[in-house]
UniProtKB/TrEMBL annotation:
Species in which this protein is naturally found: Stutzerimonas tarimensis
Entry's localization field: Cytoplasm, Nucleoid
Protein name per UniProt: Recombination-associated protein RdgC
Main location: cytoplasm
Function according to Swiss-Prot or TrEMBL: May be involved in recombination.
InterPro entries per UniProt: RdgC
Family: Belongs to the RdgC family.
Keyword tags: Cytoplasm, DNA recombination
A UniProt-annotated Pfam family: RdgC
Amino acid sequence: MWFRNLLVYRLTQDVRLDPETLETALANKRARPCASQELSTYGFVAPFGKGEDAPLVHTSEGFTLIAARKEERILPGSVVRDAVKEKVDEIEAEQMRKVYKKEKEQIKDEILQAFLPRAFIRKSATFAAIAPSLGLILVDSSSAKRAEDLLSTLREAIGSLPVRPLSVKVAPSATLTGWVQAQQASEGFYVLDECELRDTHEDGGVVRCKRQDLTSDEITQHLGAGKQVTQLALAWQDKLSFVLDDKLVIKRLRFEDLLQDQAEQDGGEDALGQMDASFTLMMMTFAEFLPALFEALGGEEIPQGI
């Protein structure tokens, strides 16, 4: 149940997000299979357990977990293009005339409708945690598009969801660059052995380093030439490690064995108990980690009028 990525959104107004209200609202947007002529469907599923009776909302220690599933039919573009070309060539040969754009689009639509029932189906799930005490929604994704799909569907379900991506007062790239230059991060954070350096000029170069001593002369020369750190691997206390980029996307989250072992002990023998214990411990860790991270990055920026 440990999140692997993190996009953080700030709730800008009070919204009723209690478990009972959410459960009723999400039931109106429950996930369902694609019909034979549908390209995709999107809706909420139970974050734990399976079946129609499994709750769509899981709560623990004041934190709430929800999950959404996208189901889509996969039609390879090359297959569709080849079928369209074959049909166009056939018409032009038989009728001795040119097939133009509008007719090609119509042919493409007909082929798509014919192929859809036989297309492969792909399912993908996105999890989100709501932390009312922090005023945050945390989405387990590094893709803003996937996060917005979940948030917009949640907004439709409950009628209103005033959120915005969390931002900080100082440009993250400036802070990350400063940490690498100083060979030291803010208290509680530690620079690891991976970073991305980018030239600030248009069409500038990019240097990606893995398993690299970031105190080396090579890195110092890149920084001296004006490159900025746009991605940096970090650790926080002895609890987790992650990669942070200049858009505040947290990737490749890894919770240390100490936390995972504790969750395993707390969860007991039951699989659902294990997932609940992991979720609870993860969220309690986030409740300490995220405020510390935002403070280390210069403090959260609150737009005027909010």
